[in-house]
Every structure is written in structure tokens, then in C-alpha cells.
Amino acid sequence: xxxxxxxxxxxxIIIGSGPAGMSVASELIGKHGVQSILLLESGDxxxxxxxxxxxxxxxxxxxxxSHYAIHAIRAFGGTSLVWAGLCGVLEPMSFDNGExxxxxxxxxxxxxxxxxxxxxxxxxxxxxVAPINSDSLINYRxxxxxxxxxxxxxxxxxxxxxxxxxxxxxxxxxxxxxxGSAVKGVTLATGRxxxxxxxxxxxxGVGNPRLLLQSGxxxxxxxxxxxxxxxxxxxxxxxVIWGDAITSSLNGSGVRVNAFSMNERWLxxxxxxxxxxxxxxxxxxxxxxxxxxxxxxxxWTLQAEMLPLEDNRVTLGKQLDSLGQPRAEVNxxxxxxxxxETLWRKAGVQFLRENVGRFSLxxxxxxxxxxxxxxxxxxxxxxxxxxxxxxxxxYGCRNLFVAGSSVFPSGGAINPTFTIVALSLKLxxxxxxxxx
Length: 436
Hints:
By secondary structure, the protein is of the alpha+beta class.
């Protein structure tokens, strides 16, 4: 239920009501029967411009400050308010490289459970990638579309009626309380402290490291490092793809975006990371794989993985917000223009070689945009090289857990929301097993 005053103590406090925080809360209560959770949301029930000034940052580098603010929405449902709905399972290559502390197979059952939450077709996990023929190095890589689900709308009745969930809006956390080894609770910007046995931090790729650093938690200097985004070049150039390259590979159903990728062997031989080439939802949302005339003609969008570079980071800046807290300072650069041009050129050669389609001549990449996929700033990894372990528990602060894309040690090229929800369900199962 929505409350204006909290209890003094909760078994679990969750900070943030977006896809990560809400998925953890609903799963702990609905599947595991946890009797009492406090969900703290800095925003209101709907978007409030004044409250969202708290998400403003000092931006240095290739992306404007507005990019970070619009992808850190403070409102019930979080950034799902501006989510476009694109979903896909993270590529095998990230797991094969050993960057994640568990296998892709470990995460697949949680993707299956996430299907109903995101209202995706049943085949979203099974048919996530398929070679266009048995010996092709080109994969048809559908990106499935949620409607998209707005988590504030989807869980509004649950939040209003559940006697096990207390939701406090317009409640900004200024500090995670701890004794140097374990979490003790949280302190609100009003000065009120609330005790908790376990705390889940789910405030996004900038908000998570910001609050950890405000709380004196830095995991040996690892918090805030290695911010990743997906480099996008929208409507890059014209490509014509023969329709049978798509229809011969996929028999599934569901609203999707036509997209292609190259297989892992092709990428490794060229020392390249994952990428997608898609028509984008603006071009063919809702269309079946084949189009009139048996071909797909479109100006395709390139979307590429970037490496987790330490110089791309979130720190506490000198400017203060309206609550007197340090704003996040984000230093971020795309090392991507040449890589994207190389991807387009080399993929075009492979499509011609396999008689799948024809690309226009590559133009230089003049403008690289982000997808709003802020990842990696509290990454999973070994102690000393990461912030959280394989169960998303923060190193050096027992019973503090971090949810969302900030824990990604690598981001692949696919949109992150499906993986965010899958990881949140995995986290909920783990926390439930730790509640006596």
C-alpha cells in the first residue's frame, strides 16, 4: 500500500521502483511470500519535473547532461516511463568470454520467467537467434517488442492493495547505513533513518554508484568505473536484404524488429565485439519478417557493444542538488566511430559473399548516439575487480544488493531490459533463500 510514514524496521528495503526494483519486490512477495517490504521511490506517482531535477548530472565527454537525466526517471515505474520496449537475450559471446561469473544457461530460466512480466511472445528466448541457413556466418537476430510495459501502470493495483508492501513516494535516500561490514538500513534526505536486514539498490547506471559513493562504499575504488553505453548510428545507410534470408530462418511469432548479427566465429576472427544491424522500430514495428516484393529495403541502424573502459566513469561532482547532495559527474567518451565503420564495411562484404543482400557504400560516421543503456558502473566480478559478486551482493557490505544494468560486466549489443528483469528475478530467489 502507499504510505506516508514507514515502520522503523523492515526485512527488506528496495530503493527504486523501475523494472529492477519492482521486479524484485513483486517476486519476493508473490512467489516467495515475504511478509514486509518497503519500496522507496524518489519521484511521485507520475512524472514531476521539479523532482526529476535531482537526476541532473555534470556531463563531460560525448553525451549531453540531458541524456543521463532522461534515462534516470524519478517516478513510480522508473525509467520504464520512457522505455521503447525492445527486448533480447544477451549474446552468448559475453558469457563465452568469461566476463559474467555464471553461464548463459544459468540465466535462461530467469529470462523465461521474465517473459510474462514484459508481456513478450513465448518464443522470445527460444528463437532469440538463428543462422540464415545451415552454413551461414550471418544470424537473423529478432529483437522482440514489449508493448512496452510501463511498470508504474502494471503494478499500480499491486502497490495499492498489497498489505505486505509499503510504498513511499517522494522519498529520496541520501545514505545507505552500514557498520563497515554489513548493511543496517537507509537514511532519507529528511534525516529519518529506517533499519533493514537487507537493502536492494535499484537506481540505475548513474544513481547506483552515486548513492554508494555518498554512503562511503566504493568496493576498493571500483564503484563508478567502466560506464558502458550502446553506440548507435541511426539510419546509417541503405541496405537491401533478400526476404528469404529472413523468412527461411524463423518460424516464430510475435511483434519484432528485423535485425542481423554475425556469428561468434566471424567476430572473433576479426577481433570485433557484438553488434546489431536493424531497421529499428520506427521502420518496421509490427511487420512480419517478409515485406512486399520479397525484400527489406531500409536505412539500417547500427548498434554496437563497447568495452568497459575505466576512464568512462561516474564520480561525485562539486555541484550540489536541491537537497544539498553532490550531483553525479559523468565522464564518458565513445571509442566507436572507426569500429562502426569497420563493422558496416565488413558485414557488407559478408552479405555479398553469401548472396544475402547488398549494402550501399559506407559513409563516415559523423554522429554517434547512445541508447540510454547505462551499464557497468557497479559491475559483477571478483573481489578487487568488481563491486558485486555473482549474487549481486556488494563486496564489503553484507546484505546490500545491487540490481539493474549497473552490475553488467559486459553489455553485448542487445537492449538491456530483458536481462535486467531476468537478473532481478534471480536476485529475488537468492534473497528469499537468505531470509530466515
